[in-house]
Amino acid sequence: KYDKGTSQADRTLNMRVIGMVLLTGISRIRGWRVGTRSPTMSTGGNTIKELAAFERDGSPRMRFAPSPTGSLHVGGARTALYNWLVARQEQNGKFLLRIEDTDLARSTRESEESMLADLEWLGLDWDEGPGVGGPCGSYRQSERSHIYKEATDFLVRAGHAYPCFCTEEELETKRIAAKMAGSQVAYDGTWRGADADEVQRLLESNTPHTYRFRTPKGKIVRVDDRVRGHVEWDVQATIGDFILLRSNGVPVYNFCVAVDDALMGVTTVVRAEEHLTNTVRQLLVLEALGFKEPSYAHASLILGSDKSKLSKRHGATSCGQFRERGYLPDAMINYLALLGWNDGTDKEVYSREELIKSFDLSRVTASPAMFDDAKLRWLNGQHLRSMSLKRLLPLAREHFKAGGLLDDAETNSAAVNDFIKIAATSTQPKAELVTDMVDLTRSTLAYPLLETVKIQDCNEEASVLAKTVTKVLDDDFISFSKALIDSYDAREAPPFCYDAALAADANPSSVLEWLEALGGRLGRSKKNLLMPARIALTGKTTGMDIPSQLKIIQCAIHANCARSICVSIDQRMEILRAYGGSAPCSFDGNTTPEGELEPKRNMNLATFSKLRRVYESNRRTASDDITMFEILRNAYEGL
């Protein structure tokens, strides 16, 4: 208690000093001010005045504080990114990772590990936190309960908090009565001014209780948010006396967040707009404990295509899902930064270094950001195509192996390395995702000639593909195929077509020279040469250039990769020979044990689009080609 002659300023200073002493005396905290040694409470150590006068060095201390109750959502990743960018803009800036795991029912260590892995994948390294340590003791809230109890005890002694013995049943009755009366649903203060002797008796009898914050009446809380501008709340009209500690001793979110932000020296709190209303409670706690408040920046929500909050129903929303689908961390960082921020220019593709240099919280918009899958995919393609070979090849190896292209091979042999290098560099210019490189390579290794030649139609409404195939077939494709086979049999094709060991170092122009020489003998112009040659050699009308595809095929043959789907050049010639009717074929080009998929109708654009959606929705659940084949066949038959 204070003497009547003590001024308000002196009482405030005394409360602040007491709070500092209580909080700095916690053994698990090495320094309540970051950068100091553990203050000793002996007369020979730091004095109270010295503790109160200590100031931070002004460097930004940013934090990301996820709750480990699921995977890392793109919204959380953006929050982490914005904090990380601010911290990295100054030499002494620090990025803290704090795990807010006080929700004991939902928090799991598996979820925490998953989030840490996603942050590491994104390249958002932290200076203090799990696995790194730091001057603030533990960075998991579940291991800091003693700190929150010390802070609660101080607030009770200072008159800012009090025990509440209302049961859950009593509180529910009060909530129902308030709703029926049309009044504010808030705690009515039953134990706010309770008799001290009664409170003490209940405490001594271990009656279950919570601790509530004594909300000041008539208080207006104001904050100048760096994104949303000036915001203020009428406390009495907004909240009641809110809980600090539950009856089981677990602190409530807003209480432990405020305490930790202060003890960890957080200078700016950057988080999502949905946390804005939490700020009023946190500022009240900080003021009562005598701590200086950090600055705040509340970024806008991220919306899906239907303008509702981004969620699982919109498709992939977690970083892990995007990683599995072949997105690059640099592209994700680039895109997440643009979800609510720009530097005032039309620039869209940024490196990490450019983002660190350009990012400014003052240019973060308060308007909701729309998540655009197509834009993300486009950005990913920009980063993928500019990626150096040194960075590309390990990614390609990882996804080729996951995609079943390396299962039949010694994955570290020189031949496998050549296959990965040739396939990766050939598919890179056409790919937007790393998984596109897998799909393009898989498509190259297959030979769907017999399916392709059936896609023809003379009707006016025929698809572009059908018209293309029909035009090629009508241009004496059979005679051209026989001439191509004869030339191949005469060993006029480039040497690597016969000896797969030569494919990795082969000159691609040798393939075009061979085809052009053949075309010259047949009197075919280049315009009437390359498409029939493409269909004859690759079995398709689209894809990479012919030389690149032949090199990939031969490299796979030499490395013994993807044997279940790879059709060699010799086998292609046998299929082509059978199609022309010049010889029986012992190999039908089918690489699945279920047999050839016979089209029931022309493959028009609408049918293709439906099958593509089926493929996209199952590409991560179908573990092998046989499973995917069954899924697509059933979908096709149901059209």
Structure write-up:
It is a single chain. This protein is mainly α and 639 residues long. The chain is built from 26 helices and eleven strands. It has helices at residues 8-24, 48-53, 74-88, 109-122, 145-157, 168-181, 196-204, 235-238, 253-263, 278-289, 319-324, 329-338, 352-358, 373-385, 389-402, 414-427, 434-445, 449-452, 464-474, 477-489, 509-522, 530-538, 546-559, 569-579, 605-618, 625-637, and strands spanning 61-64, 94-97, 161-164, 210-213, 220-225, 229-234, 243-245, 268-272, 295-299, 302-303, 369-370. The strands form five sheets. The chain has a three-stranded antiparallel sheet. The chain has a two-stranded parallel ribbon with strand order 1-2. Helix 1 (8-24) runs antiparallel to helix 5 and helix 12 crosses helix 14 (373-385). The longest helix has 17 residues, at 8-24. The model is unreliable at 1-55, 582-587 and 591-601 (pLDDT under 50).
List keywords for this structure.
11 strands; 639 residues; disordered N terminus; 7% strand; elongated; two-stranded parallel ribbon; three-stranded antiparallel β-sheet; 26 helices; mainly alpha
In short, what is this structure?
The protein is mostly helical and 639 residues long. The protein has helices at 8-24, 48-53, 74-88, 109-122, 145-157, 168-181, 196-204, 235-238, 253-263, 278-289, 319-324, 329-338, 352-358, 373-385, 389-402, 414-427, 434-445, 449-452, 464-474, 477-489, 509-522, 530-538, 546-559, 569-579, 605-618, 625-637; strands at residues 61-64, 94-97, 161-164, 210-213, 220-225, 229-234, 243-245, 268-272, 295-299, 302-303, 369-370. The protein has 26 helices and 11 strands.
